[in-house]
Amino acid sequence: MAQAKRVMLIFPPVTRPQDFASQKVRVSIFFPLGIAYLAAVIQKTGKYDLQVLDALSEGDVNDGTPLADGKIRYGLTDQELMDRIRAFNPDVVGVACLFSAMQWDMGNACRLAKEVNPDIVTVIGGAHVGLTPQELIRQHKEVDFLIEGEAEVTLVKLLESLNAGFLAPELNGIAFWRDGKVQHIPKTDYIMDLDTIPFPARDLFNMRKYFESPNSHGFYKKTPYTQMITSRGCPNKCTFCALGAHWGSKQRMRSAKNVLDEIEFLIQEYGIREIHFEDDNITSNKKRAMAIFEGMIERQFNIIWHVPSGMAANTLDEELLAKMKESGCYSLTLAIESGNQHVVSRLMKKPVNLKKIPGLVKQIRNLNMDVRGFFILGYPDETKENIRETINFAREIELDWSYFSIFSPLPGTKSYNTCLEKGYIKKEDFDPLRSFHQSIVRTPEFTPEYLAEIREEAIVDVCFRNNPNLLKYDINKAIENFSSVVERYPHFDFANFYLGEAYLKKGEKSKAIQAYQDTLKSNPEHAAAQKRMEELQAAN
Ligand code: B12
């Protein structure tokens, strides 16, 4: 077996169909925590020459590069990626596949590595690969090894094995080719004490690239900001979520001290002023959560923070919320998902009591924190009526912002299997390049086309027309939120129009006129904007 002394870890670039250009979906630059953790453990052994490459942030992420086959590439082009691999001359190339929509780019990066040098051993890992490991590796002849779930232990053991010339018997959670056949050792071992893992090897990355990235996961207020993660997994078993297959069925947590030490390091080393916790359920253990937030106050970090993936509403209470606020939390997104209790409890299996949500939203608002909500539209077996209930619920509880996503069945999840069994999707319908954003579910109740329409209607209705800050609470906040949409998507006529309405309400007429003009630029037929322009001109 090949020697494995020079190791290169790659976060691949992003390739999308032409019609998914940045006009429609933004590409996010995000500090790749996964390969940074792996780099840290490899570095700690002191046995390897190591290089990390974030092939997304190293290239063009705004307009992208059009490809000959009608796709667009964000990040490094194939040629640039091959040049980087050739320059380092690795024995092993590890490629991340964080979510399903990265599968094509992961395979492409492995293929390019083999093109540079067919002796390079390719290894893949990330949340997507553990869902259907055998099937996935079969689809990718250019992949030599697949590591499921967290890879800190397995990857180091694999490198040792490659150097020793035989595969260590204790390798766990791995799939590979042998004599033309796929071998698979399922994952059973998880790292129980997360404090034993070193902090991510940030020293190997150009961290400045991430500190002000405008399209990161979620929003930010202060720079430099950065991401970190304090736990792995979630105790809940929501039927749409892919986490169980990735992190295991039990949530594991770093100690409060270990978390606080990392934050302290980030502040001292990089002057970090805002943190995004990438946890899936950071408050599931109240005692630990309180200890983290109290520690942030006691150690006088003076930073602000939020949790972009949202918070489990059932874990929050008055005491926790007050401590969160005091420790710097400025925004809270509740993972509500549906406005119908049957859909939440029976179909999604999510422990949320909808009766408690309105009061919780008020409590958060009273603490002067921004409060938002996540909602899913088009869940298998929900009715059109249920979808309406979700939209009405989101409007009535008066959130600062609501995020409406169209349900996307992820391979390996319960809801994906339900869709297959009931014929709501066919296996070949799942297109990793698009399906995360574009519905493929067709039930007796609704079609993908209906969902796309109702989603747009929900956004205009709840986030803009009936935005509680526009109507009654805080006009500046409405302007701030509408402006951020306009900045990202200047061609959205409705966002420009309601920005105009907000400015008008505030009495800033010239800014309102500008916004109405922008509305008409993207949609000359926009009747309400035309009317406003006439009124404003008549008043002058
Ligand atoms: C940050 C994040 C994002 C960011 C990513 C930004 C970026 N450029 O990287 C953004 C906001 C873009 C994002 C988007 C989406 N995401 Co996301 N995201 C996350 C999140 C919250 C954190 C990822 C992270 O940093 N984890 C911490 C690190 C330490 O873990 P890790 O990356 O998994 O790394 C470990 C292992 O995977 C493995 N590993 C990782 N890389 C490698 C490489 C090699 C070679 C090896 C061997 C091993 C290995 O070892 C690492 C250390 O143990 C995860 C949930 C989670 N908590 O993990 C969801 C998660 C990855 N996302 C998910 C989903 C579904 C999405 C979306 C599809 C959602 C949507 N409908 O829009 C989109 C995809 C959009 C697109 N562009 O295509 C799912 C993935 C499931 C799947 N099969 O697709 C997850 C698991 C959430 C969930 N609850 O299901 N996401």
Description of the structure:
- With 540 residues, the protein is of the alpha/beta class.
- It has 3 domains: 6-185, Rossmann fold; 218-400, pyruvate-formate lyase- activating enzyme (Alpha-Beta Horseshoe), CATH 3.80.30.20; 467-540, Tetratricopeptide repeat domain (Serine Threonine Protein Phosphatase 5, Tetratricopeptide repeat).
- The chain is built from 20 helices and 18 strands.
- It has helices at residues 33-45, 78-88, 103-116, 133-139, 152-164, 208-211, 243-247, 256-270, 286-298, 318-326, 341-347, 357-366, 384-396, 414-421, 448-465, 468-471, 475-488, 493-506, 509-522, 527-539; strands spanning 6-11, 14-17, 49-54, 60-66, 71-75, 92-96, 121-125, 145-147, 174-178, 181-185, 225-228, 231-232, 252-253, 274-277, 304-306, 331-337, 370-377, 401-406.
- α1 (33-45) crosses α5.
- The protein starts with 5 loop residues before the first strand and ends with a helix.
- 45% of the residues are buried.
- The model has no long low-confidence stretch (mean pLDDT 94).
- It binds cobalamin (B12).
